[in-house]
Amino acid sequence: xxxxxxxxxxxxxxxxxxxxxxxxxxxxxxxxxxxxxxxxxxxxxxxxxxxxxxxxxxxxxxxxxxxxxxxxxxxxxxxxxxxxxxxxxxxxxxxxxxxxxxxxxxxxxxxxxxxxxxxxxxxxxxxxxxxxxxxxxxxxxxxxxxxxxxxxxxxxxxxxxxxxxxxxxxxxxxxxxxxxxxxxxxxxxxxxxxxxxxxxxxxxxxxxxxxxxxxxxxxxxxxxxxxxxxxxxxxxxxxxxxxxxxxxxxxxxxxxxxxxxxxxxxxxxxxxxxxxxxxxxxxxxxxxxxxxxxxxxxxxxxxxxxxxxxxxxxxxxxxxxxxxxxxxxxxxxxxxxxxxxxxxxxxxxxxxxxxxxxxxxxxxxxxxxxxxxxxxxxxxxxxxxxxxxxxxxxxxxxxxxxxxxxxxxxxxxxxxxxxxxxxxxxxxxxxxxxxxxxxxxxxxxxxxxxxxxxxxxxxxxxxxxxxxxxxxxxxxxxxxxxxxxxxxxxxxxxxxxxxxxxxxxxxxx
Length: 509
What we know:
There is one protein chain. This protein is α+β, with helices and mostly antiparallel strands. Among the domains are: 46-116, RRM (RNA recognition motif) domain (Alpha-Beta Plaits); 137-227, 2-Layer Sandwich (Alpha-Beta Plaits), CATH 3.30.70; 303-406, Alpha-Beta Plaits, CATH 3.30.70.330; 417-503, 2-Layer Sandwich (Alpha-Beta Plaits), CATH 3.30.70.330. The protein has helices at residues 20-34, 58-65, 90-102, 151-158, 184-194, 316-323, 349-359, 408-412, 434-443, 473-483; strands spanning 46-50, 71-77, 82-87, 105-107, 110-116, 137-143, 166-170, 175-180, 198-200, 203-210, 225-227, 241-244, 286-289, 303-307, 329-334, 341-346, 363-364, 367-368, 370-373, 394-396, 422-428, 451-454, 464-469, 487-488, 497-498, 500-503. The strands form 7 sheets. The protein has a 6-stranded antiparallel β-sheet. Strands 2-3-1-5-4 form a 5-stranded antiparallel β-sheet, sandwiched between helices. A 5-stranded antiparallel β-sheet has the order 19-14-16-15-20, covered by helices on one side. Helix 6 packs across helix 10 (473-483). Residues 45-119, 302-376 form the RRM domain. This is Heteroous nuclear ribonucleoprotein L like.
């Protein structure tokens, strides 16, 4: 049919919902090489990239592809796992496409596929070449927010580029914020300088777009919103200032005593980073006031509301198995008045933020979860009833040993990862084989893994660990939801082994 069918007039793949173009790509390349020249896509400085992992950001694409030549624009299609990359010269695009067809090119640890776009230039949301166009309000999406994001933090990051007027933080689809500058030019400079950068090393990655509103309305100054043109709105005391490096600096060690993260040395900005600001744009070390612990109570909650739960396959324990990867779980309660919805009380509001970031919109048992902050600040065990599987609609997990963030030392061993198709398993008795693990999946009516890897263990080790790769991320999520903390009993064993599962940092085996 010709490769041009892959693209529509908006540079989008009509088959991208099922990602069929990724499977067809190697075949289409052969057809282009051996078939009629009339079906070739003409050379273009714009390259269509497919097969990206869901967590990829613009910075990953630039880092992997700038070796082919200067890149002038990137347009992400995150829900389609695709992107368009516009090189300054068509020769650079030629090198990219040629290299991708002859050898594997990895972006953020996952192999990507390349072809020319039918467009010669990516259509910008606004005419970004014109300094008088655009919007002075930016929409910031904070990916992998392992540490608190407050107005103080965002002000520290954004204000050196241009005088910030207002900031509003909200938690609908993960952690997002809007930042208003006095002029469009300031917003454009901030977007160009900060898009794709990490606030703290390895986490809190900024994804920046132009917002729809042209002005923000702020009614109070606190951790969630601030109007810097109206200091009289202040309704809380501000903590003492402390020296910290903002972009790509250390994690905020002041929060280390709550069991999240370890103390890290200050990390300098890499000299070759495209996100490094010049000396006149931002000081190397900046000061911002750390808010008092009591000031976080406003507008936040340690309770998450989860809807879209499968009525027959989800219960309190399975919710715990999934959500415990992002923070301690205190209580879980299904709502009788709203079928398929549950409240999850976690250790603190930051755990809720992480759960929203990584679990919102994922599919579990054919249903898409919706995770958001609840208006309630605690889960009360009222109206307890029986779920379809016969278990209770309410369960208290405060004293369980399976919570993974009960101490700073324990929490520091947990690598916060988004769902992936590879699971890391550990605390398994050495006598358990690959076939027995496959049988365990079959017995619990969950998908089996396709690849298996066992790590080498010390001779004195009483347990083994390794990796399990599944056909899809959804399969891995379902297996973790069902089998995490499964009690493995062995013959003549006094105590069972608790199978521990988590998402791996590896994208494939």
